[in-house]
Amino acid sequence: MLPPLEKALFALAVLATAVLFLRPMILRIRIIAAGHSENRSDRPVRRLGAALGKILLQRCTLKNERPFTGLMHVFIFYSALTFDTLTVNHTLEGFFSGFSLLGHGRFRMFFALLTDVMAVLVVAGTLYFIVRRFLLRPKAYRTTPLDSAVIYAFLILVTASFLYYEAFAIAARGGARGYAFLGNLLADAIRGAGVLPAAVAAHEHAGWWLHILLVFGFIAYVPHSKYLHMFAGSFGMLVRQPGSGRIIPTLDLENSETFGIEKAADFSWKDNLDAFACMECGRCQDACPASRTDKALSPKMILVDMEKNLLAERKAVLARDRDAQKPLVPDVHAEDEIWACTTCGACMHVCPVEIEHIRKIVGMRQSRVLMESKFPAPLNALFRNLETNANPWGVGFAERGRWAEGLNLRTIADHPDAEYLFWVGCAGSFEEEGRRTARAFARLLTAAGVDFAILGTEEKCCGDAARRLGHEYLFQSLAAETIETFARHKVRKILTTCPHGYNAFRNEYPRLASGLASLSPEARAHFPRIEIRHHSEFLLELIASGRLKPAPGTGTRIAYHDPCYLARHNGLADAPRAVLRAAAGAPPVELADNREHSLCCGAGGGLMWTEETAGTRINHLRAGQILEADVAAVATSCPFCLTMLRDALVDKDRADVAVRDLAQILAEAAGLAAD
Asked: What integer is the mean pLDDT of 421-434?
């Protein structure tokens, strides 16, 4: 039992720790709450169950990208839970002599074993991270070295002080303490050294104080460190928005005075939470195609710089004084950073705490485009072409249906009862490889007896590129016109070869249709009833039903490139492979990054119409993976991927490696005439 004076000092230590922990925590909670409102409370039971499963089972940490690193983190996580329990026990023990939260029976004996096991694991995990961060120094870890050093020092010292206390506590009482193999071993060494009982008791007392004060010091440091992710990241997983990478929040263009994210005041509370949730592991940076090719963008640093800025401007943030805040671009984030993002979602897919990076970057683009009219020069032509001719190439409306010449296809105006509308898309209408894909798919539909029609000259761009480049006004204008067109023709089912159109129709248009005031009531009511299908999954159904009977090839080595907006954003990875296997006679060769881990081709986020001026071209990096696979051809299911991969292989003097869409390969296997 602590003497009265020590008990008073201990109470002061507890109080001081509480103050030192709570003051910065409350400040950060207030900063988070200062963000504008956003509803994240739907489906609470489902959210809670999913979050607890991920946190307690560490499913987000144990991902394929860094399995061993994830395992080391698991060691530290479960060790922290164990030592947290022990800290509660020691704290209560300081006030109540002989108190044991764990009881005095068999459970306490097994907990002693668990604690010693966790002591070994936390030291192993910490030493691994020390070697990795300070000796191996991968690019993703080259931030906040002092913070990391402090955390690692605390982890080692807290563990060592516990073993010090445990050993002398066992030695002081004689015998053994449960199954504490480390404590019992060290206690035997102390007894063997002939340490006097009085000295043993003194060391036990000092060890208790040393351990508890180190723990209290660590607790006080947590709010100032990346270890804050234990709280912010856990809550972030509870309130995450599933599929947020494929959905950009809709701006209220009619009633808002500012658009996008210009200053810290424009972030939502969830955005602010993400800034404090980042654990700085750098997985997002390792996965990011822009970062991998030495562009200015690091998704991790977007979050790190956000946090620094929120704290630096805390007075203005808390006062909601927007005028006193500095612009985020270029004062916090460089122009080159926000324009390097392909919105591929790789960062979000690998993030252990499921931070939503894309919406922040696109939000800053929206501010630059809509408020400042500042964006990369090549986008001038893109925006002008979309405004005047409703396609990125600026080709006149009369040319929209020219791709279908000779195919005897009907338009929806001529065939209003068609079961399916084939949405061709801009690439399918105007780009060479896209046209080949559209013609091949149309032949396949005709051969299978599918009742379909096209829009012809009525078709316009879906607006995906405009939205992801920040031109929300242009996106909403194009989308509204398209939704009205669908309603006017009473379109029931849509087929498309473009993952970007597929994503827009499937995930973004329904939200827009429900909230866009300019839409007619008929259009608003009609769109949610439309079924959206990508051609890869539809072709597989036609094969499975026997309506298409391809003659399998001879097993030529063909790789498959997963489009980001198909595999990662929408989970379609198996269907394309099944189609390719049926057409080629063998499963596709898997590239180094595949399925939901696929490497972006570089065209997403509207970057198809910009120029890469820094580092390696993203499509060249992907082409390198294709060449390493030693294949005769590469298949994909996105017209933009077709263009980017073809161009990259030509640049590398490997035009002999063919790049083709699934529809082209299947049409050939089905014996249909090719262009």
From this structure: 94
**DSSP character string of 191-247:** HHTT--HHHHHHHHHHHHHHHHHHHHHHHHHGGGSGGGHHHHHHHHHHH--TTGGG-
User: Interhelix angle for 106-130 vs 145-173, to 10°?
Assistant: 150
| CB neighbour burial string for 245-282, b if at least 16 within 10 angstroms, e if fewer | bbbbbbbeeeeeeebbbbbbbbbbbbbbbbbbbbbbbb
Q: How high is the pLDDT of residue 675?
A: 61
- Collapsed DSSP state (helix, strand, coil) of residue 5: helix
pTM: 0.90
**Residue that the structure tokens 């954003």 belong to:** 569
Residue 325: pLDDT over 90:
yes
Predicted confidence at residue 556, as pLDDT, reads: 82
- The Cα angle at residue 396 between residues 395 and 399, in degrees rounded to 5: 90
pLDDT tens digit string along 352-388?
A: 888 999 999 999 999 999 999 999 999 999 999 999 9
Q: What is the pLDDT of residue 102?
A: 64
The string of DSSP letters for 41-81 reads: -SSHHHHHHHHHHHHHHTTTTS-TTSHHHHHHHHHHHHHHH
Residue 333: phi and psi, rounded to 5, are -120, 135
Query: Angle formed by the axes of helices 4-33 and 229-239, to 10°?
Result: 40
**Nearest to residue 462, comparing CAs of 367, 392, 381, 525?**
392
Q: How far apart are CA 493 and CA 531, in angstroms?
A: 5
Sign of the C-alpha dihedral computed for residues 338, 343, 344 and 345 taken in this order: positive
CA dist 528 and 294 (Å) reads: 42
Note the pLDDT of residue 136: 83
The string of pLDDT tens digits covering residues 622-651 is 999 999 999 999 999 999 999 999 999 999
Domains of the chain listed by start with CATH number: 4-21+44-237 (no CATH), 256-372 (1.10.1060), 390-539 (no CATH), 550-669 (3.40.50)
Cα torsion through 528, 531, 537, 539, rounded to 10: -160
